[in-house]
Structures are given as C-alpha cells and as structure tokens.
Amino acid sequence: MNIDAIDPAGVAGEGEAPVAQAVLSSHESPAGAFGSCGTRLVGPPPRRPVPTSISMCVDLGGLEMKNPVTVASGTFAAGREYGDFVDVGSLGAVTTKGVSLNGWEGNASPRIAETPSGMLNSIGLQNPGVAHLKEHDLPWLQERGATVIVNVSGHSFDEYVQVIEALEDAPVDAYEVNISCPNVDAGGMTIGTCTDSVEAVVGRCRAATKRPLIVKLTPNVTDVAEIARAAEAAGADALSLINTLLGMAVDAKRRRPQLARVVGGLSGPAVKPVALRMVWEVHRAVSVPLLGMGGISTGIDAVEFMLAGATSVAAGTVNFVNPRASVEIVDGIAQYCEEQGVQDVRELIGALEC
User: Fold this and answer.
1) In whole angstroms, what is the distance from residue 238 CA to residue 297 CA?
2) Does the annotation place 92 within a ligand binding site?
3) Is 125 annotated as a binding residue?
4) Has residue 3 been placed in a domain?
5) Where does substrate bind (predicted)?
6) Range of the domain at 171
7) φ and ψ at 204, to 5 degrees?
8) Which segment, 105-114, 149-158, 287-296, is predicted with the most confidence on average?
9) Is 322 annotated as a binding residue?
C-alpha cells in the first residue's frame, strides 16, 4: 500500500484514528513485492508521514519545522544512507553528523559495543571535513527539500567559528554546536562541562551567525541546568539534550575492555529515564526551546519528552535498528494527538502535570 495516497477519511473505521489506521495498513506487504522464492522484486518508496489534520509545526528557536522530529547527530550521517527508507524532506529536520574544519580520522577499533538496551560508541567524531559536506551532502539534501541542521564540532573555540563561517554561504537552516568535544586550548577538558568555556564558545559562535543556534549539552555534569543557563546567557536560541552518557563495557573472558579507548558514549533506551529527567530540569531553568533526545524509539517516547518540556525531539540509536523509525515517530505523535483530542502538537510542550 502506498501510504502517500491514503485518504485519512476513507481508511478509518468507526472510532479509529486516521493515522492509526493508515500506519497499520502501511506495514502490510504490497502485493507482488516478493517473488515465489522470496526474492524482493520491487522496493517500497521512501516512507513519508501519514496525512493528518493535526497541526504538527513547531518553532525551535527560530527554526521552523514541519513536524517535531529530527534525527540525532551521528546516527543518520547526512541522510543519504537512509534515502531509500525515509523521505528526508518530510522530516522536521535532518541533523547531520558532526563536522569539523579539516576532518578527523576518528578512534581506533573496536569502537562500538552492544549493551543491555543500548550501545556504546567511541567513534571519535570521524568526518571528512566541512568542504566535503558542502560539496557532496548539502546539495543532496537541498534537492530533496530537507530542513538542515548542521552539527558543528571543534577542538578549539576558533575551530567552531571557522566551521560556521565556512557554512554561511551554504544551504543550512540552523547549527547545532556540539560542546561535548575536548578543548585542546584547555588541556583536553570537555568544553561543555564548565560554564566559562560554554559561555566562551557559544558567544563566539553567536557572533559568527544570525542563523538559529542550538547548543547540544552533555549529561556528564553535576548540574545540567547550570550549563543550560550559561548557554542561554551566551546567545543560544535553543538547547538540545542529552548527548551520550559516559560508560564502558568489559570482556570478562579476555579481561579487557570492549572498546579500544576503554570508555565510550552510552545511548539507546537505557538512557531514556536520565534524558527525560534532564529535559524536565532544563525546561524549568531556561526560557529557550529544547530539542529532546535520548532513547526515543516510538511516538509515545517522543510525546513523553514533549510533555517534559521539549519542543522537538530526535531519533538516534533506533535508526540503526529501524531505518524508518523517524517517520514512524512522526506518525505516532500524530496518532496520540488524535486519540487525545489535541489539535496542535504544541499543546504538548511542557504539559506534564506534577
């Protein structure tokens, strides 16, 4: 079944929400899609959200999003790898993998380890550099009508600014500044763990652009609200959280760590309770909108983050399990709104009753 052609009024039975009925129908195997030996003959088109009467638009610090769902940096590359599964132009935004000025080689292998309800990664922000992004990836996203958030990484305050300056003439809608990088100007200390360094890097990035500036917070701090307030004071238009939690995995038989660098970033469903708590705390501490992430796998997960205070959400590790997850989360949010009598998705933001 082609879900783009679904008439919501025509598929819903009595008492059934249009999105709910359409989503269920979209999982049926299309007739003729498989041969008698099971070989796939025709692949389905890239998935788009099911039409809905719910107003799904949100404003993330000046970034107009057609729905509240983007993808977490580092889990979606720049979208090209997922183009056969998802219509990237139908998402609220595509957030690119972190980009640095001249490219980084990344860490030694092994650098990924599966954990209960999640995964550890120690990729090291490997990327080919901003020139490659501008030449190869941003034109591809522009051709597909995608709203683009570029995740900016740097090992020094100057590098962050240089990346933004290099992108100012490119088709970019917003920047997400990853302040979880180690700062070589401060002996390798993670920039996002100290209010002084947060204010310094965000202030310099703010001076370099008039585009929406989203600052991505690390959860590996004592008081995330304090860091959030520092980013807001320095000019952030929005905050995204959480980045990965620091963790490790051990191979008991070999008596060695599973990652070459011993520790890595934990993501996936295991971190969701921590992420929800931090979004709720930060929502009460600042006035700028929040992009919530951390263990989101379903539409209900996303709704929970919005109730806790997020304006928009990002699907991350789930993309490795289900490449169509981002669009399914859009549909899940719309289905919840239909069932709850919510006409505008913005009604969910911060609506948690405590």
Assistant:
1) 23
2) no
3) yes
4) yes
5) 97, 121-125, 178, 243-244
6) 55-348
7) -70, -40
8) 287-296
9) no
Looking at residue 5, its amino acid is A
Residue 89 annotated in ligand binding: no
Strands 263-267 and 290-293: unpaired
Percent of the chain with pLDDT over 70: 86
* 156 labelled ligand-binding: no
Is the domain of 123 the same as that of 15?
A: no
% pLDDT > 90, the chain: 81
CATH of the domain at 341: 3.20.20.70
**Does 354 fall in a domain?**
no
Helical segments of 12-71, H only: 18-26
Residues making up the chain, counted from first to last: 354
Q: Please identify every residue annotated as catalytic.
A: 181
Closest CA to 11 of 66, 57, 52, 54: 52
Closest by CA to 176, choosing from 243, 265, 82, 230, is: 243
pTM value is: 0.88
- How confident is the model at residue 272, as a pLDDT? 98
Is 163 part of a structural domain of the chain? yes
Flag whether 50 is in a domain.
no
Tokens of 310: 């997020």
The answer to the question of whether 66 is labelled as a binding residue is no
In this structure, the number of other CB atoms found within 10 A of the CB of residue 187 comes to: 7
Q: Are 325 and 318 spatial neighbours (Cβ–Cβ below 8 Å)?
A: yes
* 3-state DSSP assignment of residue 348: helix
Q: Which residues pair with 290 in a beta bridge?
A: 239
